[in-house]
Design brief:
The chain is 3% helix and 49% strand. The chain is mainly β. The longest helix has 7 residues. The termini are far apart. The N terminus and C terminus are likely disordered.
Length: 513
């Protein structure tokens, strides 16, 4: 535990390489978890996930401290929840029971079990207090507001007991809807950490599912959230280290929304598994959204990933969006602004009805793999970059309509080819690119009607001529892979590095036939 420090910088997120893994492993004596660098995870679905941002860096730039996940089991205060009969095992004055409202007033570790069908657990501790709540088969429901509220503390840690199932369900209408009143089934005014190897189901019937008004770190656990508005919110920052989180939200899925304080409002996915179905944005940050490790799947959204700056250094992101898949913007402006998309590693797969990868500033791809299944209408493009699209490494396959095509800019050091088909080909069509010797250098399988493909990889040599085919066979992952020209039909030829005149904000066009 420590007071909040400076925000995690974009540079640190992009280049810091630390421990190979962040895992939760029970100790022999008490079963209490401790962070280790073994690269394995007990009780989570993210076993062996590599971590691109070290725990030391996280400890410096967030409230998270792995020491907070170890404690003396003998010091625990057991609280047995029951309608009209909640009791605490200790004679300590730190637990106060008033009807079905249980208030914890000082630092310590409190193990909650049992249920309240219409009650509330409140943490009202001192400014320097770390309060650890172990949910050990606890079911909390409220008919008037939030069942779990942290009013004050330095940090609140919700630890999900090993092998336990826990639930939180709030009211559909809150009695208190004032400016600073709780608005989530799990609501914290202090820094909040969720850890442990158990499970938690959160029903946010009124507004949000989980909301922290300071920082939020998801260190472990198997958690499902169903929310009437936003799913999981950390105001200053929202960090996923490990665990399996499933979010269904009518609003945004997973986000950080501090717009007032400089350097706040950032999201980091550094491991674990995040699955989001959202009525609005899937994963969103006001400032910087970084994916360094783990798996993030946006199954449904208006816009999949949205932030001023979006960075992918590792992990696997699969995005489905009704509008833009990846959107670095602060509005709908066409001028080149202070917005960036940077991909240096990992796998990014996009299926969008609007623009696939969209930056209202610049974009760069220096490593990793980017696969875009973009729009079928000509008013949007698979790639849409208002400034410069610099491709210096990695693999890019951007397919979509032919009406607004953006190609790599003049600062790109890795070549590519631009394919415009005579007419759209249907979903499931194999598009292959072969060099002058007939060797297939790229095989792409469309996931929807496609009229254009921009492809760049280290296999493409500047100035060389390549032949484009449709048909044949291919073995692919995320749409890309190896192909065979048996049964394929030649469509024409393209020359690497030759892109036609600009058709969209960042340039585009088609091949020569």
């Amino acid at each position: 535990m420590k007071n909040f420090r400076s925000h995690l910088s974009v540079a640190a997120l992009a280049v810091t390489i630390g421990l190979a893994g962040c895992s939760v492993a029970g100790t022999a004596a008490t079963g209490i978890p401790a962070i280790s660098g073994t690269g394995t995870s007990s009780g989570t679905t993210s076993s062996g996930t590599a971590q691109a941002v070290s725990l030391d860096t996280l400890a410096e730039d967030t409230h998270f401290d792995d020491d907070d996940l170890t404690w003396d089991a003998a010091s625990e205060v057991a609280v047995t929840l029951a309608d009209g009969g909640t009791v605490a095992s200790s004679s300590s004055d730190a637990v106060k029971v008033d009807g079905d409202t249980v208030t914890i007033t000082s630092a310590g570790t409190y193990r909650l079990s049992g249920s309240l069908s219409d009650g509330q657990v409140v943490v009202a501790a001192g400014e320097e207090d770390v309060v650890r709540i172990v949910l050990d088969g606890a079911d909390l429901t409220s008919s008037t507001g939030s069942p779990f509220v942290v009013q004050s503390a330095n940090e609140a840690i919700v630890y999900l007991g090993d092998g336990t199932s826990n639930t939180l369900s709030d009211a559909s209408t809150y009695a208190d809807q004032g400016t600073d009143a709780p608005n989530a089934a799990m609501y914290s005014m202090a820094d909040l950490t969720i850890a442990g190897t158990g499970s938690l189901a959160v029903d946010g019937n009124f507004n949000d599912g989980i909301s922290a008004k300071d920082g939020l770190v998801l260190a472990a656990g198997t958690v499902t959230v169903d929310a009437a508005d936003d799913g999981i919110v950390g105001k200053d920052y929202a960090v996923l280290l490990d665990g399996a989180y499933q979010v269904s939200a009518a609003g945004d899925g997973f986000k950080s929304d501090n717009e007032e304080d400089e350097g706040r409002g950032w999201v980091l996915i550094n491991g674990g598994t995040l699955n989001v179905s959202a009525g609005d944005d899937g994963i969103k940050a006001f400032n910087t959204l970084t994916m360094a490790a783990g798996t993030a799947t946006v199954e449904e959204s208006e816009e999949g990933l949205e932030a001023q700056h979006i960075i992918l250094t590792g992990g696997t992101a699969t995005i489905t969006a009704k509008d833009d898949g990846v959107n670095a913007s602060g509005g709908g402006e066409m001028a080149v602004g202070d917005y960036t998309v940077e991909v240096s590693g990992g796998l990014l797969t996009i299926n969008s009805q609007g623009d696939g990868l969209d930056s209202n500033g610049n974009a760069s791809i220096s490593g990793g793999t980017v696969v875009v299944n973009g729009p079928t209408n000509s008013g949007n493009g698979a790639l849409d970059v208002n400034g410069e699209l610099a491709v210096t490494g990695g693999t890019v396959a951007a397919a979509g309509s032919a009406g607004m095509v953006v190609t790599p800019g003049t600062s790109s050091t890795q070549s590519g080819v631009q394919v415009t088909l005579g007419s759209s080909v249907p979903a499931g069509t194999v598009v292959q690119i072969a060099d002058s010797s007939g060797t297939v250098v790229a095989a792409f399988v469309t996931s929807k009607a496609t009229a254009s493909l921009v492809f760049s990889s280290a296999a493409i040599t500047e100035g060389e001529e390549y032949t484009v085919y449709t048909g044949g066979t291919a073995t692919v992952s995320a749409g890309l892979g190896e192909g065979s020209l048996d049964g394929a039909t030649e469509q024409g030829s393209v020359t690497a590095g030759e892109y036609t005149a600009e058709q969209g904000p960042g340039g585009g066009g088609g091949p020569r036939w």
